[in-house]
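Quick one, tokens below:
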């Protein structure tokens, strides 16, 4: 039986709007890095986050979209804890015509696999 990860790895292209931690890490070092939108609870984002990310909680994303401050020419990667809520927000962005992706397995995977984070925990 295939694992869930095997199934996701076999999906063509970005057909489901998912981006792996490895791919995101590579894209962050590119000439045109994506905007990272972290939708976790504010205290969690303030404690530990992907460098350069912006924050809006799930219920405030509509306000961000309505503000007109998002570029339709820049990819958006939505980050939550495990990928479920970010998948929902990514669907909204894609419906509106944005090039958006959900971080596969979320911030928990990013942090646990050793990708860099800005952490206030280390400062304490």
């Amino acid at each position: 039986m295939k694992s869930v990860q095997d199934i996701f790895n076999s999906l063509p292209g970005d057909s489901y709007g998912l981006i792996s931690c490895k791919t995101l890490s590579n894209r962050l070092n590119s000439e045109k890095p994506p905007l990272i939108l972290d939708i976790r609870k504010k205290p969690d984002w303030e404690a530990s986050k992907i460098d350069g990310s912006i924050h809006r909680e799930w219920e405030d994303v509509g306000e961000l979209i309505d503000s007109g401050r998002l570029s339709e020419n820049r990819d958006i990667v939505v980050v939550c804890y495990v990928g479920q809520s970010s998948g929902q927000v990514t669907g909204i962005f894609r419906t509106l015509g944005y090039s958006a992706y959900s971080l596969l397995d979320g911030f928990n995977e990013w942090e646990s696999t050793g990708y860099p984070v800005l952490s206030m925990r280390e400062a304490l």
